[in-house]
Structures are given as structure tokens and as C-alpha cells.
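INPUT
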Amino acid sequence: MIVSRTPIITQEIPEFDQQYQTYQSELEKRLMWTFPKFFYFKKGTLAERAFRKLQRYPSAPQPGVYFPHGKPDIKFDRDRRLKQDIVLRVPDEVKVNEAGETITTSEVDDETIAAFVPNSRTTEADRTNDVLSLERKLSRTLYLLVKDQSNTKGWAFPAFPLASKQPLHINAEVGIKTLGGPNMKLWTVSNTPCQLLKFSQGQLAVESAENVTREFMIKAHILAGDFEAPGVTHAWLTKEEIKEKCDGAYFEQVAHLLAEN
Amino acid sequence: MVQPIHHTVKINKRLLSPNYPELKLAKHDIRNTAFKPAHTSQDRLQDHYTATLESDLLLINYTHNQQRQEGLKTREWDGSSPYHINRPVRPPRGRLVQTKDIKPRTWKNVPQLELIAINCFVKEAKAQSHLVIAAHLQLQQITNSKVQRVFTKSNVPQWGIRKGMPIGAKAEIFGADAHTFVTTLNELVLPRIRNFQGITNKSGDRSGNITFGLTPEDVKLFPELENNAEQWAKTFGIHITFRTTAQTDAEARILLSGLGFPFYGEEKN
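OUTPUT
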């Protein structure tokens, strides 16, 4: 059975991609329509006057004046060579009090915004590299691997002998519950197996081998709980870590089933 | 409705002239006035699809020994009578329109969200045509796209409509815009609708497109309207259609539930 923990947070993107996206979003801001203030602020209202007062208007081109950063191209109080900056409130002033602490004076005293600090993308399990924890590598897909007690297969996905004449996915669900405890909440993706492996005497079998045991792989996602099996050596690993731990021939057979992210 | 108040860039009139087609710039060229930046931010719905959903959908929809299933087609006359010549073909058995063939599911045709079509029909606009403008603006605000007006197609005196009356607005959103819309619906709008059970399992046009509706009160929950609520005394209900590449409605429902939409009720087929 392939039990996976799907990503919890957004993917890590390379620095180049990040810079490209920033560039594109700046371009988008540059090409945006000029803010339709007539729609949001009715003419002659107090709100409109306050809004007008807050804006910083670009300087208009003057005959005989040299503009080192290019001649302004002004339409409706906006320099359309650049993105438009809308000021909706007075920028915060930073002050230092008697005790030497910096305080921010804000017109909008919104405690919820001030208190909002996003959680760290790296967790305690990341720092200690705790492979037993489900809270490691939150942006990646983790897969459950167990170490074979008889040490013939080494590290592999958990497998269970077919107990009776029951469907493969039911057998896999019962097997993983008996191995890893009843606290795991699993969702089986499909009753169709996603891979067939053939073993002969604990090794991956060649085509002409005899007395082969077949291993059908059923896919499942862990939704809650944890794999708790005191007697079993297990680990939650990403694709790269599986490649390091597993036998090369075994990894080759299952690599296409594992997510890159 | 809100229109741009001026051109966002200086127009080079030489390039607009039809005299020199070789001077025309491609639409993805940054010098083209129609250039629109595409990859402006990380698309987490697309990331979820590629990392988890795509392989799961392939496995869920896959069955062994798949064959191409012929859809219902129109039936030709057998030609046993001379009157069969020029006689119109018979409709499919038990239906009026043909259905598509169902091809074997492979990694090449995993269902995907193609686009979201949002349709807003304003019944009151028969008497008060200015309401169409408000409906148009509402769609513009919640979809971040160019909205098209809808006109009546025919004269129906009983309903009080004549051909060509403005009667509503519609928008089609793709890619990142569509993904943002899905996330807004799932995280901000649908969870706050009272008595919302989900999308009914009976919805669907049999070829993988799922539709559901939002009432005028539900539409008020969109953050674009909610943060400017005093401007929106009147809102309009909308129909949202998810156009997917799924071959059947069941597959489309699996895709949408993977994207986070709940479904309820009995399945029709």
C-alpha cells in the first residue's frame, strides 16, 4: 500500500521563478487601468476630499525643463509610464518612546492586522529531521515506508498477504490498520491497483522466474492521525529520500508513482 | 459599468495601420498594446492539481480492458423505400441529440478544469433596463475579466420581451483567474452561505459540465462586494458553469470535489 501525506502548504518555488513572477506582477500593475475614483468616491463628498488629499500627484511636464527619468506622460492625474500608487491611509510614523522602544502610530488601529504573523514554513520536525513525524517537509508529498523485519527487501512500502478472498483494497485497508493502529484516518484513492510488482525469494523477479509472489499497490492518503507501530521501523519520506533508502531496482519500479512535489 | 478612463500605454498609430502587416507584433510581445502578463503569482490550485489530483483522477477513472464506447448517434434510413431518399435522419434511440463517444481513459485525457462560465440573467431588466448595467458591473467585480452583455434572442409577447433587449451579462474566465475564483468560492463564499448543502449531484449536461447557482444574497458574500457593501444595495443571482474536459458528469464531479466543492443528493446516472 502506498500511503501518502499530501502537501499542506504551497510549493517552494525557485528564486528565479519568484523573481520572474515579481517582474510579471509589476508589469501587470503597470498595465492596470487607472483607478476609477469616480466609482468608489462620489464627487463632492467628504470621502472624496479626504482621498484626494492623500494622493501624491506626479509633476506635469514643463516646457524647457529636463526630466532625467524621462518626460512624464500624464493622463487623469497618473503618469502612465509607471504603475499607479493609491494611498488609502496616512503612512505609519515610527517613533521612539522614552524606554527606547519603537512604536508605530497608525490611523487605523486594527489589532487583528497588527497581530497577524504567519506561521513558519519550517517546523520542529524539519530542524531535527524527524522522519517519523508527519509535520516534516510541509510543502512536499511524504510516503510511508517500512523496513522489512526479515531484511530481504530492506526499505519498502508496507505489504500484506491476501488473507481471504476479499478485494485488494479492503485487504490493504485492514492490513494497514492492524499494522499501524486504529488512529489513522485513511482515504483509499481507488480499488484499482496502480502497480504490480513480482518477487521471487524476496528479490524482484525476472520475467522467467518461478514461484513468484505478486504485490499489488493500492494508493491511499492519510487525512488524520498517525502511524503508530512500536515494533515496526517506519519513516515518512519524500521521493528523493526514498531513492536514497530503497534498493535501486525497487525504486525504478515505483518512481513514476511518486509525486515530484 | 466601469470602463477604462484612458489607454494604459501610448498607442503607436503606425503599428495599427493595415498597410504594413510585417510591422504587426505578436500578442505575447511586450511592445504590443494588447500584451497581458501571464505568470504573475504562484497558482496553488494548479500546484495541487499537478502534485496530487492528476494522478489520483487517472487511477479513479481507470478500468481494465477499456474499449471505446460508442455514443448514441442519429440513425440512417435503410433505403428499403424510395421515399427514404431526402427523408431527414432519425434521431438517436430514446434521445433527441447525439452523445459523444467515451474514449479509453489514459494519462493523455485526465479531466481538467477548462474554464468557468458565469451567467447572470436579470428578469427585472424587462421593465428596468438600467439594472443590466449593475449586473454587468457585479460580474466585472467578482471575475476580474471583461464581461459581455446578453440580449434577448426572440420576441415572446407573453413574457414581455422583444428581440434585442439587454437582459443580463456573462463572463468566461480561464487559467489563473478561474483558479482564483474557485478558491474564493470555496474558502470565502460557500462556507458562509446558510443552509448550503453543496452542488446537487443531479447537475450536469451529460458531457462533463457542471452548473450551479447562487442567489442574490449569496453573491453579497464575495469579498469584492462585501468590502464595498453600501454600494451594493441590489445584487443579482448568477449561474456558474464549470466546463471540464471530463467525458462524463461523474468524472467531472470527482474533479470538482478534488478541487474542494461538496456534492449532495442522489446521482442521476
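end of record. Chain A has a mean pLDDT of 88.
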